[in-house]
Write a structure and sequence with these properties.
Elements (H helix, E strand, L loop, with lengths): L6 H9 L3 E6 L11 H6 L4 E8 L4 H16 L5 E3 L3 H9 L3 E8 L9 H8 L2 E5 L22 H13 L2 E3 L5 H10 L4 E3 L16 H9 L3 E4 L13 H15 L4 E3 L7 H9 L24 H10 L4 H20 L1
Parallel strand pairs: 1-2, 2-4, 3-4, 4-5, 5-6, 6-7, 7-8, 8-9
Helix pairs in contact: 1-11, 9-11
């Protein structure tokens, strides 16, 4: 059942900075850049695009970045590719969608530390270490055993911190995530993960992991994928339950959004069924596939927070203020 959004919630949502740190723009997700104006129309101010990762090499990743930068330049009346917090503020003042770029996995670095700065200067502002499966940097959470950070992985984190690339620990193994947070000297994030105490799944986080992340100065972003919460069909109320658990545990200053919205889930579900080493859930004959909340449902989260008695400043932090603060710290 849909949450009815009050005028107060609509106004607060429209006035707040809304920052979604994950939108999968990859061929198997059937998401096109023509959808970007829809995000802005629905109230999203900042959106980070997944471009490449463990399914790509250097050439493929660079090509994806180049093609995306060119496409965004052709939409400059509606979107702005941003590489700093100040650029995000400027894009919003101009009524444009602020777009960021990121990777999901580091195979596309091909064990070359010098590619970290290259990709960063091309606009890639954050990356996962690995995506579900192990790579040369770290363990993945869908492996039978997570061996943790490799020597190269530790060097990679050090170089990322040097240039200012944000470390995202979603999809990496739980041992790997703990080791990464222990060695990090800058904030870490889980851009799109949910709460294991509410729904047990390898992709979800224990309270201890979330607390460790907050102690780095980072934050945890809720993911709207139905695979990571007991919610079919998807509802804003189910997603709010995870958000509320995080907020009560960590405080509003360590929670954000990484909604991972899918407009047409069928192609992605077919892709996942073909790669069950990455997605063991998809091997089950009765696997229902995944879905996400819709753009129209995002303001329902704001209503849920108001209904739960959240102060308006806390709501603003969660919707986007926390990521803006983190961007200011890392990117200026």
């Amino acid at each position: 059942m849909a949450v009815e959004v009050s005028e107060k919630a609509r106004q607060l949502h429209a006035d707040a900075l809304v920052w979604d740190m994950v939108w999968p723009w990859e061929p198997w997700c059937d998401n096109g850049l023509d959808k970007l104006p829809d995000f802005k129309a629905a109230g999203t101010d900042v959106l980070s695009l997944t471009l490449a990762g463990d399914n790509h090499n250097i050439y493929q990743a660079v090509t994806r970045v180049a093609e995306t930068r060119a496409a965004l330049a052709g939409m400059s009346d509606q979107v702005t590719l941003c590489e700093s917090a100040s650029a995000v503020r400027q894009a919003r003042s101009e009524g444009k969608l602020a777009v960021l770029l990121h990777f999901e996995g580091t195979r596309c670095f091909e064990r070359r530390l010098d590619m970290v700065e290259v990709f960063y200067k091309l606009g890639v502002k954050h990356t996962l270490l690995a995506f579900n499966n192990a790579n040369s940097a770290s363990g993945g959470l869908m492996e039978a055993e997570d061996a943790g950070l490799t020597n190269f992985g530790r060097s990679l984190i050090t170089e990322m911190e040097r240039v200012g690339m944000l470390l995202d620990l979603s999809h990496v193994g739980h041992r790997t995530a703990r080791e990464a947070m222990e060695m990090s000297t800058k904030p870490c994030v889980f851009t799109h993960s949910n709460v294991n105490a509410l729904f047990e799944h390898p992709r979800n986080l224990s309270d201890e992991e979330m607390k460790q992340c907050a102690e780095t100065g980072g934050l945890v972003g809720i993911a709207s994928s139905t695979m990571y919460r007991d919610a079919i069909p998807s509802t804003a109320e189910s997603l709010f339950a995870h958000l509320d658990h995080m907020t009560q545990l960590l405080g509003s200053e360590h929670v954000g959004l990484g909604l991972d919205i899918i407009f047409n889930p069928a192609p992605l579900n077919d892709w996942m069924r073909s790669r069950t080493d990455e997605w063991p859930d998809a091997a089950a004959p009765d696997w229902p596939g995944i879905d996400s909340i819709t753009l129209d449902e995002i303001p329902q989260l704001t209503q849920c927070m108001l209904d739960a008695g959240y102060p308006e400043n806390d709501i603003r932090n969660i919707l986007g203020g926390n990521y803006l603060r983190l961007a200011q710290t890392l990117w200026g």
